[in-house]
UniProtKB/TrEMBL annotation:
Keywords of the record: Hydrolase, Lipid degradation, Lipid metabolism, Signal
Membership in a protein family: Belongs to the 'GDSL' lipolytic enzyme family.
Protein name from the UniProt record: SGNH hydrolase-type esterase domain-containing protein
Bias-annotated ranges (Pro residues): 354-369
Keyword Signal in record: yes
InterPro entries from the UniProt entry: GDSL, GDSL_Est/Lipase, SGNH_hydro_sf, SGNH_plant_lipase-like
GO molecular function: hydrolase activity, acting on ester bonds
Signal peptide residues on this chain, from the entry's feature table: 1-24
BP term (GO), one: lipid catabolic process
Stretch list, region Disordered: 350-369
Keyword Lipid metabolism on entry: yes
Amino acid sequence: MKLSSRQLIIILILLGIATDGYHCKVVQFIFGDSLSDVGNNRYLTRSLANANLPWYGIDFGNGMPNGRFTNGRTVADIIGDKMGLPRPPAFLDPSLTEDVILENGVNYASGGGGILNETGGYFIQRFSLYKQIDLFRGTQDLIKSKIDNEAAEKFFQEARYVVALGSNDFINNYLTGVYSDSWKYNDATFIDYLMETLEDQLKMLHGMGARQLMVFGLAPMGCIPLQRVLSTSGGCQEKTNKLAVSFNAAASKLLDKMSSTLANASYTFGDNYDVVNDVITNPSKFGFENSDSPCCSFGRIRPALTCIPASILCKDRSKYVFWDEYHPSDAANELVANELIKKLGFLQVDPTNSPSPAPASEPTPDPEG
């Protein structure tokens, strides 16, 4: 039987599908805490760590709360945008499907979550890193049922991974005096405990295909507005900052070791401590006017632990390093993201995806209406 040119083309296309399987798109899988949460906690109805309130999200999209614990974008949002990667939706987003995962990846980050399961227990509901990895395992099962195992393996190995936790393990665990970790460990042994746990978690992710992974370091967490206002002097809590420096040194060493011992692993440590410390110490050098108090606050009543509808907003959100008592502003997140991109030499994965612009600060709404 003689085949027409049209029939030959169809057969070749079908053969290509049979041999190549699903065409993988490079996406991100993000594991983290409130600095990376894009909406998971808004679906955890009993969680006390929640950003589903005005004025969160005021400089993002339609200006309505979207689950991000800031006025605009997260550092992971901005880095992903500039690398040409799609923004992964929250795991608990009701619109999440296998097709959405294949196109955009998933964000498992949860406000209040930590490397340790016990961290942030008083928030009632939050995803620890172990829980987030367990959810990722379920995601893999979904994708394997959608496409064949070989294509799924390729998809997960080509993806990019971000792990950004640790500050809650100190601020909402070790330093509180509430949890047993506070008296069970000293500074050095607690960091050893964190590193042993993180190593186990990263090995689990490697076993599930994570090959290109970045762990974000800790910023000077003793200088967040909450830590300052709780100090007697109003200055940074140096003990807390020293813990961040020690954590970063240990995590960097761990990532170097894992990159050299795990097969095909490219594990990077993103240390932003110095640049954030510089911004906090010399805000005017970077175009900021305030680096010690939150843009969104409850007047003189501090600390108001979250930004609420009755809060008063600063006049120019782009001039504040901190959005609320815990979290940086969009402007600060953009600066940190750009410094990490420069320091680590990130290349665009898909140059056709243009980065989103930084949101412009709109006139501050009157909380009284």
